[in-house]
Amino acid sequence: MNKGKIGIVKTACQRCGAPISMLSRSLFGADDLHAELGGICSACLTPEEDRRILEGTMQAALAAIAEAVAE
Length: 71
Ligand SMILES: [Zn+2]
Description:
With 71 residues, this protein is an alpha+beta fold. It is built from 2 helices and 2 strands. The chain has one domain (8-70). A hairpin with a 6-residue loop joins strand 1 (8-12) and strand 2. The chain is flat, with a radius of gyration of 14 Å. The mean pLDDT is 86. The site of zinc ion has 8 residues, from loops.
């Protein structure tokens, strides 16, 4: 398996145990959010957590773009 390649991992929701598919690693380096909330199915995510994922992903994406532009 290539290191750094993003794949789909089958796992179980940390809260209800429902089978879910998640990315093997986070997009754009939002690793903390991915570790904390990546293993939870959408039915178990609260609106607050949903919002945190969205904001965290956006911020990480913006940071990645800013880094790319600076090079
Ligand atoms: Zn769940």
